[in-house]
Amino acid sequence: MTVKLIAIDVDGTLLDSAKNLHPGVKSAIEEADRRGVLLALCTGRSPREIRELSARIPEISYGITANGAYVVDLGNGGVVFADTMGAREIRTVWKTLSGFDMMFEIFTDHQVLTDGRCLGNPDHYGVGELKELVVSTRTGIKDLVGAVESGQVREAGKINIFFPSSRERDRAKALSRDLPFYITSQEPTNLEFTKREVNKGTGLKMLAESLGIKRDSIMAIGDNNNDLPMIEYAGIGVAMENGLPEVKRAADFVTKSNEDDGVAWAIRKLVFQEKSL
Predict the structure, then answer these.
(1) Considering the domain 85-195 in this protein, what is its CATH number?
(2) Which PANTHER family match (predicted)?
């Protein structure tokens, strides 16, 4: 089987725990590109949040962002495909969880909107190691819900919510269980909402079909529960050694950790079929 497309998760997979890109990983990606393999970032991040990263790795052509809601061409920034929630869905999530102390964020195709007051105190909302990314990529709005009600904000690819603690997150998750959305998490203190039928797997499927690539010719690499749909969809699903147990169980292979160039190992072993590994 020839791999024609590699989908790579960002946090916990492509990047190490300090959010660094290792030279060995970058080298393997460059070699894959030279061999004619297409590459895509597949992430819960918004298009805005991967802009700087994609500029450092121009060999990666596509971004499957906001957990599959937006597929973008990283070369020109254009949206290839979008499947978004409308104002009614945004209001449903807000009204369900409005009793919580939370940092409510709306992901669009070009920005991330959040309450300006929360943005001024991100540490309170458990953003942790994402603080620098959050502060540098969010647009603060004085009345975020009012902007939705007035029609200023009409759609969201993803809703992300940070809570002050994992306990509060778990309470909110339990309250949200019956809502008609796909709900996942990447951090101990966050919840992410997309349309029920939207996830990394559907985003990868739409990209592959637009490129004429069959799922048997796709490799997907990830570590977290929002990576499960793409790992299950791809012909070769790869879990990181640092990944969740359920991700490892679903994968065809387990590679090394993100601290030990796991993405590079997977590409060289499974795509290049290097015998020395």
Answers:
(1) 3.30.1240.10
(2) HAD SUPERFAMILY HYDROLASE-LIKE, TYPE 3, PHOSPHOSERINE PHOSPHATASE
Contacts of 132 (CB under 8 A, 6+ apart): none
Selected catalytic residue, list 9, 11, 115, 227:
9
Residue ranges of alpha helices (H) inside the chain are: 23-34, 51-56, 87-97, 116-119, 131-137, 144-149, 166-176, 200-211, 228-233, 245-250, 262-266
9: annotated active-site residue: yes
For the stretch 246-257, pLDDT in tens is 999 999 999 999
| Of residues 174, 173, 211, 210, the one with CA closest to residue 193 | 173
Provide the mean pLDDT of the chain. Answer: 95
Segment 163-182, tens digit of pLDDT: 999 999 999 999 999 999 99
User: Rg of the Cα trace of the chain?
Assistant: 18
User: For position 140, what pLDDT does the model report?
Assistant: 94
Give this prediction's pTM.
Answer: 0.93
Record: fold of 5-83+198-271: Rossmann fold (3.40.50)
Q: Write out the residue limits of the CATH 3.40.50.1000 domain(s) in the chain.
A: 5-83+198-271
**Does the pLDDT of residue 277 top 70, yes or no?**
no
Do the Cβ atoms of 115 and 161 come closer than 8 Å? Answer: no
| Class of residue 266 by CB neighbours under 10 A (exposed 0-12, middle 13-18, buried 19+) | buried
